[in-house]
Specification:
The chain has 946 residues and is an alpha+beta fold. It folds into 5 domains: 95 residues, no CATH class; 136 residues, PH-domain like, CATH 2.30.29.30; 110 residues; 162 residues, PH-domain like; 163 residues, PH-domain like (Roll). The strands form 9 sheets. The chain has a 16-stranded mixed β-sheet that branches. Strands 9, 10, 11, 12, 13, 14, 15 and 16 form an 8-stranded antiparallel β-sheet that branches. β39 and β40 form a beta hairpin. It holds the Pfam family PH_SPO71. One of its GO terms (biological process) is protein localization to prospore membrane. This is PH domain-containing protein.
C-alpha cells in the first residue's frame, strides 16, 4: 500500500501573516508586465495545474475513455479561472504584485486543508490519477502533465538568511532516503524470457501445518512447463559471484572495509565447537576483555585486519598507514562465525589465539601460545552492512547455500518451500530475489483455503506482501536490494540464513506490510478514523499576567507541539509556489515527503510538547484572568469518549459578528471580554492550565472541536496499542498475574503455554512499514528513562525519533509543557543493547545474578525482564556545525572523526524487552538511511598496509 495513503490529513487554522506568504514566492516568479496576466495565466498556474488535470477530471466523475486533448485544455482553463476567482488566488496575485509586502504586519487568508484544491487531494492522489498511456497529448503543457515528478532522493540544502515569519524556507534535512525498488532483471519474468520458457524457475511445494505436502498445480504459468521443473540451459558455470562481489580480484585485495565497534575477549577454554552468542556469553566464565573501541576493519581473502590510531600524534602520516592492531585468520579449522544478537545484528568470530607478532602489543589480553580462544564481537552501524559482512564471512567459512528455502505464511498457517535449481553457481541469486520469491509464493498460495478472504482481498485494496526474518518477537523486514554503493545486493534474501548460526535461528516469513493504523475499533464495534491534525498561529497567555506571546501550535500523532513564531514552518496555501531552496516539493506543490520533512522540522524546533492524553478537558475561557490551576477530575469515558469530546460550545451572535484581529476589537466597547471569548484552555492531568487566544471567536471554537476529537481518538489509540503490547508479552512467557474467572464451579483448564509460532498480528503494528516508507514525521515516540553517561540518575523523558534525529523532552509533573532538553544526531552513531550494553555499566549497578522484580504499569502491562534486557545505549559524536534548518547536517568527507575520537554515551531504559527491541529496530532504520548518505567518506578514510 502506497505511503501516500498513510499520512494523516492536516488542516491549517486561521489567517497567516502576509509577509510569510510573500516570502513563499520565488524571486523568478515576479510578473514581467504591469498586470502580470501573461505569466499568471499562461505559464505559472497552468504548469502547476496540468500535472493534476487528469486527476481532477476523474474527481469530477469523468471516464478514462472520454479523456482527450480538448478535455484536458477545458479542465486546465476552468481550474485557472476558478483559482483566479478564489480567495487564495487573489492573495497570490497581490503578493506577486507587491514584493514590499514581506514587511507587512497584516494577516490574510483563512483556514484551509493542506494539499487540497477544490476537493482534490494533491498529497494522496487516487490510484487512477495518472494520465493513461494511450493518451497522445502533444501540447507543451500536457507533456509536463504526464511527466513523473517523484521527489529526488538527493538533498538540496544551502545557507539562507531567514526573515521573521519566514522560517518555512529552511532547506530539507540533508538525509538521503533510499528508494526501495526492484529491478526487472531480477523479477519473475526477465527481459528476453517473455517469448520462451522462463529459466531458473524452481519447483514449489506447499506444506500445511500438519506437514502434508502438495505439489503446485500442473498448469503452465509464465512459460514454466506443466511439471513445474526448470531447466538450466543458460546457467553460468562460474561460482565466484557466490563468494565475492564483482569488483573483487583474486589475490590479497580488500573485499570489504568498514568502521565498526569491536570488543575483544580471550578465554582459556576452547570455544570453537559451540555457537557464541548473547545467551552463551551470559553463562561464560573467566573471560578477559578489552573495552569497546572503534576500528577500521578490513576483510581480505584470507584474514581480517583491525586498524586503529597510533598513540603518537602524526605517526600515521610518517609511516603512511594506520596501526595494525589485530589479525584474525579466516580458516575453516581455526575460525567460527556466530550471530551474537539478532536485535543489534552484532556478529562474533571465535578463533584460535595468534602470536604477539601479529597482534597489538598494547593489548591487555593474555594471548596464549597454545590452547584457548579469542573472541571478537563486531557491531556495524547499519543492519544491511552487517548482513553483508556476515554473509561474506559465512561463505568464506564454507557456509553452503541451502537447496530449499522455506517461507512461513503465518496468516494462513502454511509453509511454502522453494527449490533452487543449482546452488553451486550464480543462478541461486536469480531464483532467490525478493520479488521472485514473493511472486512464486503468491502464485502457489492461491490454492490454499481462505487465501481469498485473508490475504487476497487485502492485496487487491493496495496492501503489499513483504518478506521478513523473525526471531522470537523481533521482525526484520527485507527491504534493501542495493548496498551503500548503490550496487545490487544479490544475497539480500539469503544473507538472513546466517542467523542460523545462533541458539535461536530466525525464520523467514511472508506478511502483509501494514502501516501504522489510522483507525481504532471500540468495544461496541464502532470503527473510528484518525481525525485530521491541526496547526496554526495562537497567542499564549501567561497565567501570572496578561502578557501574550505569538506561538505556533501543531499536532503530530497525539502530541501538541508549541513552536516560536519565527520557526513555525507553516504550510504553503493551495498553489502557492515555494522557492527552489525550500523543502522538497513537486513543481512547487506540496508533496508527501515535503510534508514529512516539514513536520520533522517543527518537532526539532518546538519549545515544548504536551501529550494530548494528559489533557483532562478543553473549555472555553470564562474568566478574565487566566487561572493557574484547576480542580476538574478526569472521567473514564470508555467507548463514549468520542461522543463526549465532540460536544461543542454553542455559537452566540457575538461570536458570529467577530471579524477577527484588530478589526473585530475596534468594533466592541469591551475589548477584554472579546479577547476572553477568543480564548480556550487546556486542563492538564497535573492540575495546570494553559490558555491560548485565537484570531477570532469562530477559530477558537474550531480549535476546541478539533482538539477534542484528537484527544478522544489518541486516548483510544493508546489503549489499543497497550493491549497489543500485552498480547505480545503473553506470547513470550506466561502471565505474571494469572487470569481469574468469576465462576469456578468446575476445574479450570490451565492456560496454554506460549507459542511463538503463531500469527501474532500485533507484530506488524509494532514493526509497521511506516518506519521504512517514512509516512509520518514521527518514526516512533514514547516515554523512556534516560541518563547521560555511565553514571547518574535516570530521568523520565518524552522521546521522538524523527529524520536522522532523536529529540528528547524532559517530563516534569509541575510543568505545563515538557521542555526540549536534548537533540541527538544519529549520523555516525552506534546503538547497542542487551548484555553487551549492560557490561559497560559500572559493576555496582549491574549484577547478572540479581533476579528481576515483577513490575506492573498503569496501562496494565506486566513485565519481569532483567536489567540487561530493557536497556540500550547510543554512542554518538557531538553535533557538527553549522546547523541548517534546525537539522544537523552530515559531516563532510574531510571532517570524518578519527577512530580514537571520544564519543558521548546516552543510556535508555524501557519498560519491557518488547519496547526495547522495537526502539532498537526503529533507530536502526534511521541509522541505515543516514549511513547511505555518508558512508563512502568513512570507508575511504585511513590508509592500510598493502
Amino acid at each position: 500500500m502506497s505511503a501516500l495513503h498513510h499520512q494523516p490529513r492536516r488542516s491549517f487554522f486561521g489567517p497567516i501573516p502576509e509577509k510569510v506568504l510573500t516570502h513563499l514566492q520565488s524571486s523568478d516568479l515576479t510578473p514581467h508586465s504591469d498586470t502580470g496576466e501573461a505569466d499568471f495565466g499562461d505559464t505559472l498556474i497552468p504548469n502547476l495545474i496540468n500535472r493534476h488535470a487528469y486527476s481532477f477530471f476523474l474527481h469530477e466523475g469523468g471516464n478514462t475513455e472520454d479523456w482527450t486533448e480538448e478535455e484536458h485544455q477545458n479542465i486546465t482553463q476552468r481550474l485557472i479561472h476558478r483559482w483566479k476567482e478564489s480567495e487564495w488566488g487573489v492573495i497570490h496575485d497581490k503578493c506577486l504584485r507587491n514584493p514590499q509586502n514581506r514587511y507587512s504586519t497584516r494577516w490574510v487568508g483563512n483556514s484551509f486543508e493542506i494539499g487540497d484544491l477544490f476537493g482534490l487531494d494533491l498529497l494522496c492522489p487516487s490510484p487512477g490519477g495518472s494520465v493513461p498511456a494511450s493518451d497522445k497529448i502533444t501540447s507543451a503543457t500536457s507533456i509536463q502533465a504526464q511527466a513523473s515528478q517523484e521527489p529526488s532522493s538527493h538533498p538540496q540544502s544551502s545557507n539562507i538568511e531567514h526573515a521573521p515569519f519566514a522560517s518555512s524556507s529552511a532547506p530539507a534535512p540533508d538525509v538521503r532516503r533510499p528508494v526501495v525498488s526492484s529491478s526487472s532483471t531480477n523479477g519473475l519474468l526477465r527481459p528476453g524470457f517473455l517469448s520462451k520458457a522462463v529459466k531458473l524457475m524452481p519447483d514449489v511445494r506447499v506444506a500445511d501445518s500438519h506437514g502434508q505436502e502438495s505439489v503446485s498445480p500442473a498448469t503452465s504459468v509464465g512459460g514454466i512447463d506443466k511439471a513445474g521443473t526448470a531447466t538450466n540451459d543458460h546457467v553460468s558455470d562460474t561460482s565466484s559471484a557466490v563468494l565475492l562481489p564483482s569488483q573483487v580480484e583474486p589475490g590479497n585485495n580488500v573485499v570489504l572495509r568498514d568502521r565498526m565497534l569491536v570488543r575483544v575477549y580471550s578465554s582459556k577454554s576452547d570455544l570453537l565447537d559451540q555457537v557464541f552468542d548473547e545467551s552463551v556469553h551470559r553463562t561464560s566464565q573467566q573471560l578477559h576483555y578489552e573495552a569497546w573501541a572503534e576500528y577500521l576493519v578490513v576483510l581480505r581473502n584470507s584474514r581480517i585486519e583491525l586498524y586503529d590510531d597510533y598513540d603518537f600524534p602524526g605517526k600515521e602520516r610518517f609511516v603512511g598507514h594506520k596501526h595494525l592492531a589485530f589479525v584474525i585468520p579466516i580458516s575453516v579449522a581455526n575460525t567460527r562465525l556466530s550471530l551474537y544478537s539478532f536485535v543489534d545484528l552484532t556478529f562474533c568470530l571465535t578463533c584460535v589465539p595468534t602470536s604477539r607478532s601479529r597482534n597489538s602489543l598494547r593489548s591487555k589480553l593474555p594471548f596464549l601460545s597454545r590452547g584457548g580462544s579469542n573472541i571478537f564481537i563486531f557491531k556495524v552501524k547499519s543492519r544491511s552492512r552487517a548482513y553483508d559482512w556476515a554473509w561474506f564471512l559465512w561463505r568464506r567459512l564454507e557456509g553452503s547455500v541451502p537447496s530449499t528455502l522455506e517461507i512461513r505464511v503465518p496468516r494462513v498457517d502454511t509453509t511454502v518451500t522453494i527449490d533452487a535449481p543449482d546452488t553451486s553457481n550464480e543462478s541461486v541469486f536469480d531464483t532467490f530475489t525478493r520479488d521472485n520469491v514473493k511472486k512464486l509464493s503468491m502464485r502457489i498460495l492461491r490454492s490454499v483455503p481462505d487465501w481469498n478472504s485473508l490475504i487476497q482481498q487485502e492485496t487487491h485494496s493496495g496492501a503489499k506482501l513483504e518478506l521478513a526474518w523473525r526471531s522470537d518477537t523481533n521482525l526484520d523486514w527485507i527491504w534493501l536490494d542495493m548496498d551503500i554503493h548503490d550496487k545490487p545486493r544479490k544475497w539480500a534474501m539469503l544473507c538472513g540464513i546466517v542467523s542460523k548460526q545462533s541458539s535461536r535461528p530466525a525464520i523467514l516469513e511472508i506478511r502483509l506490510a501494514e502501516h501504522y493504523p489510522t483507525h481504532v475499533h471500540l468495544k461496541n464495534g464502532q470503527r473510528v478514523h484518525e481525525p485530521p491534525g491541526v496547526e496554526g498561529y495562537l497567542q499564549k497567555i501567561s497565567p501570572t499576567s496578561t502578557m501574550k506571546r505569538l506561538m505556533y501550535l501543531s499536532t503530530h500523532d497525539g502530541y501538541l507541539f508549541v513552536l516560536p513564531s519565527h520557526h513555525a514552518y507553516p504550510p504553503a496555501p493551495p498553489w502557492f509556489v515555494q522557492p527552489s531552496e525550500q523543502l522538497e516539493t513537486s513543481n512547487g506543490l506540496p508533496s508527501q515527503q515535503a510534508e514529512v520533512q516539514r513536520g520533522a522540522l517543527q518537532i526539532v524546533h518546538a519549545l515544548g510538547v504536551c501529550d494530548l492524553r494528559n489533557v483532562v478537558a478543553i473549555r472555553r475561557a470564562f474568566q478574565m484572568m487566566p487561572p493557574q490551576t484547576h480542580s476538574e477530575q478526569e472521567v473514564n469515558e470508555g467507548d463514549t469518549a468520542l461522543n463526549i469530546w465532540s460536544q461543542g460550545d454553542e455559537v452566540t451572535e457575538e461570536d458570529a459578528n467577530d471579524l477577527g484581529g484588530e478589526d473585530g476589537l475596534s468594533q466592541v466597547t469591551n475589548r477584554s471580554v472579546l479577547r476572553m471569548r477568543r480564548s480556550f484552555e487546556l486542563l492538564l492531568r497535573s492540575g495546570r492550565v494553559i490558555r491560548f487566544e485565537a484570531y477570532s471567536c469562530h477559530l477558537a471554537l474550531d480549535w476546541i472541536q478539533r482538539l477534542r476529537a484528537l484527544i478522544a481518538y489518541w486516548k483510544q489509540r493508546h489503549r489499543s496499542d497497550a493491549r497489543q503490547e500485552m498480547d505480545l508479552a503473553v506470547a513470550r512467557r506466561p502471565r505474571l498475574t494469572p487470569l481469574t474467572r468469576k465462576c469456578q464451579e468446575h476445574a479450570v483448564t490451565p492456560e496454554a503455554p506460549p507459542d511463538l509460532s503463531t500469527f501474532l498480528p500485533a507484530l506488524v503494528n509494532t514493526y509497521h512499514w511506516c518506519m521504512i516508507a517514512g509516512c509520518r514525521p514521527i518514526v516512533r515516540g514514547g516515554k523512556l528513562f534516560m541518563r547521560k553517561g555511565l553514571r547518574g540518575t535516570y530521568k523520565l523523558v518524552q522521546m521522538f525519533l524523527v529524520t536522522n534525529h532523536l529529540i528528547q523532552y524532559l517530563i516534569s509533573p509541575t510543568s505545563t509543557l515538557h521542555p526540549l532538553v536534548k537533540k541527538i544526531n544519529l549520523t555516525d552513531a552506534y546503538i547497542c543493547s542487551g548484555y553487551m550494553a549492560a557490561l559497560v555499566l559500572p559493576e555496582d549497578e549491574f549484577n547478572p545474578s540479581r533476579p528481576a522484580a515483577p513490575r506492573r504499569y498503569q496501562d496494565g502491562l506486566e513485565t519481569d525482564d532483567k536489567e540487561e534486557d530493557i536497556i540500550f545505549m547510543i554512542r554518538y559524536y557531538p553535533p557538527p556545525k553549522p546547523i541548517i534548518g534546525g537539522l544537523y547536517t552530515n559531516n563532510k568527507a574531510d571532517q570524518v572523526p578519527s577512530l580514537s575520537a571520544k564519543r558521548k554515551v546516552v543510556i535508555f531504559r524501557t519498560r519491557s524487552k518488547l519496547e526495547r527491541d522495537a526502539w532498537c529496530w526503529a533507530i536502526n532504520c534511521e541509522i541505515e538511511k543516514s549511513v547511505r548518505a555518508k558512508e563512502d567518506a568513512i570507508h575511504e578514510s585511513g590508509t592500510l598496509i598493502s
